[in-house]
Design a protein that fits this description.
Organism (chain A): Jannaschia rubra
CATH class of chain A: Mainly Beta
Number of helices of chain A: 1
Distance between the termini of chain B: 60 Å
Pfam family, one (chain A): PCuAC
Bound molecules: copper (II) ion
Helix content of chain B: 25-40%
Keywords (chain A): Signal
Number of domains of chain A: 1
CATH class of the largest domain in chain B: Alpha Beta
Largest interface: A-B, 48 and 51 residues
Strand order of the largest sheet of chain B: 2-1-5-4-3-8-9
Oligomer: heterodimer
Strand content of chain B: 15-25%
CATH architecture of the largest domain in chain B: 3-Layer(aba) Sandwich
Signal peptide (chain A): 1-23
CATH superfamily of the largest domain in chain B: Glutaredoxin
Radius of gyration of chain B: 18 Å
Protein name (chain A): Copper chaperone PCu(A)C
Largest sheet of chain A: 10 strands, mixed
Chain lengths: 153, 197
């Protein structure tokens, strides 16, 4: 099976609500939140971060909103065995107890659509992550240069 | 939950379609990277409005990759990696021309590319053209691209596309490619070896 199909199946499993009891959002640790600068507001932006589940039950990220954009979604970029890359909504993201999920270039990302103002290097904005227990976590995001390759620039 | 399931199943459907399409595409084709005659060939407009062909870059190595300006993740990442590779070449940078070819001719006018590609530095040249020119170029490079419906995206679509980075030699002949996700440091080391040979 190719990676697109696998990703879709993973999304299906997550959406079907399989897995152990849901943990509280108070157990989530968000690290290395950053976004690439954009030129203007016409084109979408992307933000990245690492979600760590410090609790002892699975934690599920169900939604995201951004102060900088009219609409934010978790997307997944996939590259198949022929070298074709595309992206799609990732559905809910389950983070097992004691594990981390990285949103990083070329994989999971927060897609920022309808930017309210350009993301300028040195600025920041806030992401609000919603979890399956209804809890919300506010995450400050640093805007790095357009050619940034990771949270370190 | 019911809606989530519907979305999940439509993702599965999409995956099956995408898989079928990419399978059909590669099976139909000959030539490409395995063919000793494979070379860079294009006639496109650069981000300053000039008509460019591979002959304009004769005598220089070409780093060629495909993408679109509305791409928030994979394309800026590749542009950033290529810029890092070019920085790492130091005085040899002048021997290598990085070329970003748009596979989204509808949205990527030369003006749109002019506001996007140069921001990454490293003298990367953005190339675009008419839909016919882009289709011909993609055919010549044996790469794949498709529109993917995405209601929330500008214009209501996003693109899927081949994301490897190609290296062509000073006579435009194909040398090698690196898959998306190859670290700039690794590409730089390989490229330096080629430049030294
Ligand atoms: Cu996206």
């Amino acid at each position: 099976m190719n990676r697109i199909a696998m990703a879709a199946l993973a999304a299906l499993t997550a959406a079907a609500g399989l897995g152990p009891a849901q943990a509280g959002s108070e157990d989530v640790v968000v690290e290395n939140a950053w976004a690439r600068a954009t030129i203007g507001t016409a084109r979408p932006g992307a933000a990245y971060l690492t979600l760590r589940n410090a609790g002892d039950a699975t934690l599920t990220l169900t939604g995201v909103a951004a102060s900088a954009a009219a609409r934010a979604e978790i997307h997944r970029s996939v590259t198949d065995e022929k070298g074709v890359s595309s992206m799609m909504p990732a559905g809910e993201i389950a983070v097992g107890p004691g594990t981390s999920v990285a949103l990083e270039p070329g994989g999971l990302h927060v897609m920022l659509m309808g930017l309210r103002s350009p993301l300028d290097e040195g600025d920041g904005f806030e992401l609000t992550l919603t979890f399956s227990d209804g809890g919300e976590v506010a995450v400050p995001v640093a805007v790095l240069g357009i050619a940034a390759r990771g949270p370190g620039g | 939950m019911k809606m989530a399931r519907t979305i999940a199943w439509s993702l599965v459907g999409l995956a099956v379609l995408a898989f079928g399409a990419s399978w059909l595409w590669t099976d139909r084709r000959g030539g490409g990277p395995g063919d000793p005659a494979f070379a860079a060939a294009f006639e496109l407009t650069d981000h300053s409005g000039m008509i460019r062909t591979q002959e304009d870059f004769a005598g220089r190595w070409m780093l060629v990759f495909f993408g679109f300006a509305n791409c928030p993740d994979v394309c800026p990442t590749t542009l950033a990696e290529v810029a890092a590779v070019m920085d790492g070449l130091d005085e040899d940078a002048g021997r290598v021309q990085p070329l970003f070819i748009s596979i989204d001719p509808e949205r990527d006018t030369p003006t749109a590319l002019a506001a996007f590609v140069p921001a990454f530095g490293a003298d990367i040249v953005g190339l675009t053209g008419t839909p016919e020119q882009i289709a011909r170029t993609a055919d010549g490079f044996h790469i794949y691209y498709e529109k993917v419906e995405e209601a929330a995206a500008p214009g209501g679509y996003t693109m899927g596309h081949s994301s490897q980075l190609f290296l062509f030699g000073p006579e435009a002949g194909y040398v090698r490619s690196w898959p998306y996700g190859t670290l700039a440091e690794e590409i730089l080391a390989d490229l330096k070896e080629h430049l030294a040979s």
